[in-house]
Structures are given as structure tokens and as C-alpha cells.
Design a protein that fits this description.
Order of helices and strands: HEEEHEEEEHHHHHEEEEHHHHH
Number of strands: 11
Distance between the termini: 61 Å
Mean pLDDT: 92
Helix content: 40-55%
Strand content: 5-15%
Number of helices: 12
Largest sheet: 6 strands, antiparallel
């Protein structure tokens, strides 16, 4: 452990015995238990809210979480000499949710529903001054604004590809497949514009609903009879559909849009949290939007093109192979009369 990290840990009531490198963190074996120290780049004001949220989850018995540790002075972060912020939180051991195990994925949906029932803070005295990322409750349709922003990005890359004088084989391949996805993206934005999600977003804001923000199999751990959800740093005040969409899409992509996986996740979630009509429509539009294609395009455009083209090409081929199964799932299970 280097001197810089040691100096930061002097602010905490921890007696460090050993340390080792972890994924983006240093794992600390201490007399008080396992902890980790990692850099924190998000809003510092949200840290008290994060600790309150994970405490509510723990106290409700939904699952275990990774609590944040305050300094002796009650601060939730420390800064090094370069003013980079660091946080200390519990390190939880366990096996990640198996993305190819339908039962575990369905259980993850049950955990998510439980999280959403207790991740609510309606106390304005607590949240005032503790800024959190959130959707704008005064905006009629923030999802449409999100789609329009993404579509501008897609059109920008399309113009770049069309005007490029010399194209690689991958760029020619990407350009050939671009039109259907661009058309779908524009179509979904138009469909979303016709919707009115005001009541749904207002309800989320007025009830103090928070979401995990990055709920996926990497952040669900199993150890013996314990289940743990970790990494709440992306939590925000938002509609619960955003979490459900992210979890469902990740699971479906990793399982070739297997119908049984999708049905299992949705049914298990709705046993605890039934979706309203607006929420189902919102979820459908999120799933219909070609977000995976957009991410592939952004990865190509913003990364070192000569190094990434092979990896990106494989992702694009997988996306194309899954297209029919994806369309079939959406057509069967999201019908609105």
C-alpha cells in the first residue's frame, strides 16, 4: 500500500492489516472487517443520500449492501493533494449473478422490485443541499429528450462515415447496416413524442423514488444464503422503469433474447411491483430503441478505431444475429390495443 493511500486512511477509524488490488480499488483487510478505498468522481453532495438509501435497504431486509464509511469528522470522502476525492466503503465478497442462469436472473428481478419499494426518501430537509442526478420532473417527456439527443449523435457519425474518403472494411460494413437502425431510432423518438409520461415522472418525484442506476448482474452477489447488491454510486431520483429496462436488456442480450428469460424477469418483478400502463409503454419504447447499436457506434467513433474495429465488428454481428429474436419478444409481450 503506497504512502498516499495510507495518509488518506489516517482519517478513518480503521486498523489495516493487509491490502490488495481490486477492480478499480484497493481492498483493505482491517480489524473492523473488509473495506475498500476507491476514487470517487461523482457529486460529493449525494454521498449522505447514498448511505441513507443502503441503510434503508438493509433495515428492510431486502438484501445486504456495501455501506459507506465516514471519517472521524463525519465526512463521507477525503481528498489527496491533487484534490482527487476518495471514498471508503465495505467490500462484499461473493459470486456474481450467473448471467446464463435463468433462476438467478429471475431472483435478481425480485431483489430489484424489493429495492424499489424501499429506496424512497421524501424528507425535503434531508435531501435539500444533497444534490442527486435525476430526471427533470418539470419536463413532460425526458425520455423523448434522451432519444433526440442520442439521434443527434447517430446522425453525426453517419455524416462522418458518408463523407470519409477512405473507409476500412469495418466502416463499410457499419455503413451498410446503418440505415435500418437509424430509421428505427427516429421512429421510436416520434412514437415517444406522442406519449405523455408526465404523471409517471411526477409520481416518482413526489414519492421520493430512487433507483440503483446501474442494476445488472455484476452488482448482484451470492454467498451462501446471503444476497448482496453493491455499487449504488449511480443512484438517482428517477422512475423505476429505468432500472428494470437496464437489467432486462442486459440479461436478454446475454441470452440471445431468450423469451423465457424475459418473461421470468418481468413476471417476478411484477409480483412485487405491478407496472402501470404508462410504465409498460415507457419500458417498451426503451427496449425498442436501438441502444445497443448506438453504443457500438459511439465506441467506434470515440475510441482508437484501428485497435477496436475487430471487437466492435463482432459486437455488431451478434446484434444483427439477435435482431429477429428481439423483435419477436417485443411483438409478443408488449401489445397495446
Amino acid at each position: 500500500m503506497n504512502d498516499r493511500v495510507l495518509s488518506l486512511l489516517e482519517n478513518y477509524d480503521l486498523t489495516v492489516l493487509r491490502s490488495r488490488k481490486g477492480r478499480g480499488a484497493i481492498i483493505l483487510e482491517t480489524e473492523q472487517g473488509l473495506y475498500q478505498i476507491r476514487e470517487y468522481t461523482r457529486r460529493k453532495e449525494k454521498l449522505p443520500i447514498l448511505e441513507r438509501l443502503v441503510t434503508q435497504v438493509d433495515e428492510a431486509g431486502v438484501c445486504e449492501t456495501d455501506h459507506y464509511l465516514a471519517t472521524r469528522e463525519g465526512q463521507w470522502y477525503v481528498q489527496d493533494r491533487n484534490e482527487a476525492a476518495y471514498i471508503v466503503k465495505q467490500f462484499r465478497e461473493g459470486r456474481e449473478c450467473d448471467i446464463h442462469d435463468r433462476k438467478e436472473l429471475v431472483y435478481g428481478a425480485r431483489l430489484l422490485a424489493g429495492l424499489h419499494r424501499v429506496m424512497k426518501i421524501s424528507d425535503p430537509l434531508f435531501t435539500t443541499g444533497n444534490a442527486m442526478e435525476s430526471g427533470d420532473p418539470d419536463t413532460n417527456n425526458p425520455l423523448m429528450e434522451e432519444f433526440c439527443r442520442h439521434n443527434r449523435e447517430l446522425r453525426k457519425v453517419l455524416r462522418y462515415l458518408k463523407h470519409k474518403s477512405q473507409r476500412t472494411e469495418f466502416e463499410l460494413f457499419l455503413l451498410r447496416e446503418y440505415a435500418p437502425y437509424m430509421e428505427q431510432a427516429e421512429c421510436v423518438a416520434v412514437m415517444c413524442e406522442a406519449e405523455n409520461f408526465t404523471a409517471m415522472y411526477r409520481e416518482a418525484a413526489e414519492s421520493g423514488q430512487y433507483i440503483h442506476g446501474e442494476y445488472q448482474y455484476h452488482n448482484i452477489l451470492f454467498a451462501d444464503s446471503r444476497q448482496t447488491v453493491i455499487n449504488f454510486e449511480n443512484a438517482m431520483q428517477e422512475t423505476r422503469v429505468r432500472d428494470l429496462y437496464y437489467y432486462l436488456r442486459k440479461a436478454m442480450e446475454k441470452n440471445d433474447w431468450n423469451e423465457a428469460v424475459g418473461i421470468g424477469i418481468l413476471e417476478e418483478y411484477e409480483k412485487i411491483n405491478a407496472l402501470e400502463d404508462q410504465e409498460r409503454r415507457n419500458l417498451f419504447l426503451r427496449l425498442l430503441y436501438p441502444d445497443k447499436f448506438r453504443k457500438i457506434v459511439n465506441c467506434y467513433f470515440n475510441g482508437p478505431k484501428s485497435l477496436l474495429s475487430g471487437k466492435i465488428e463482432e459486437k455488431l454481428r451478434v446484434l444483427l444475429e439477435q435482431q429477429k429474436a428481439r423483435e419477436s419478444f417485443l411483438n409478443k409481450h408488449f401489445f397495446f390495443g
